[in-house]
Amino acid sequence: MPSMNSGRDSDAPEESSSGAETAFFMADAHFGTAAGPEEMRRVERFVRFLRHVRSRGGVLYIVGDLFDFWFEYTHVLPRTPVQVFGELAALVRDGVEVTYLAGNHDYWIGRHFTDALGIRVSHRPIDLHIQGRRICLTHGDDLTAGHDPGYRFLRRLVRNPLAIRAYHWIHPDIGIPLARWASHRSRSYTNKKKFILNRTLEGAVREKLASGYDAVIMGHVHFAEIFRYESGECVILGDWIEAFTYAEMTGGAIALKRWEE
Fold first, then answer.
1. Under DSSP, is residue 230 helix (H, G, I), strand (E, B) or coil?
2. Domain ranges of the chain
């Protein structure tokens, strides 16, 4: 199944539509942060969630940062929990459409997901038409980058085709640990700026709603909340590190839920 788009250097939305009666949205599991019992418990919890989605049917949208780092070398993949791949493949095999919208930590996802797993991949926000509503589906770093010139520069750099090509030449035993270190620094930096992010996010969301969207669904900031405005709503998905939250959409209504099992 082909990628939804091949141009990675634009924030122009990719149009998509779905006739599914049930849609699930999740973000920010950051698998691969650290191997050990705690990560294994998170993986097992997520696998049970995926099996629930498979039993319900519909569509699943992964809204970025499923992995703490992802880069596809020609012959090497990062060490990540294989159970997740198996369950995602089972979802697709059983007719659940899975779309993976790249985040800021796993932006370089690519052909492994499309060719081996049959997952649709987008590197841009998605203009999603579903259940009679128009949704802006975005990881969220594009909405929170406006206040931070340093982050805007970094965001452009990791999307630059020349930078991506150059990174391929770094041996994986060096490149992957280096990227994991940078990923950890990025996550700590974001956590420190959460107060600023929360204050600046509203303006960006209102601008999206004013442009014709009924709702914005996003991740990135690692808290779960639904903000409702006169012109629509903003659904922030939380994470699968501490909150284990996701959104479910049926009949045009979006609800935040926590996976307890």
1. coil
2. 16-258
Residue 69 region by backbone torsions, left for phi larger than 0, else alpha for psi between -120 and 50, else beta: beta
The whole-angstrom separation of Cα 10 and Cα 125 is 9
Q: Which amino acid, 95? A: G
Beta bridge partners of 23: 59, 249
Helix axes 194-210, 172-192, angle to 10 degrees: 90
Q: Cα–Cα distances in Å, from 233 out to 18, 64, 138, 205, 252?
A: 20, 20, 14, 9, 12
Per-residue model confidence (pLDDT) at position 7: 44
Q: What is the helix (H) or strand (E) element at residue 150, kind and residue range? A: helix 149-158
Structure-token pair, residue 215? 């709702």
- The rounded distance, in Å, linking the Cα atoms of 57 and 102 is 23
- This prediction has a pTM of 0.83
- Rounded CA separation 239/228 (Å): 20
Sheet of 232-237, strands arranged across: 14-18, 126-130, 133-138, 215-218, 232-237, 224-229
d(CA 63, CA 147): 22
The percent of residues in the chain predicted with pLDDT above 70, rounded, is: 72
Q: Strand pairing partners for 234?
A: 216, 227
Q: Please tell me the distance from the alpha carbon of residue 180 to that of residue 186, in angstroms, as a whole number.
A: 10
Q: Per CATH, is 16-258 categorized as 3.60.21.10? A: yes
CA distance 56 to 176: 36
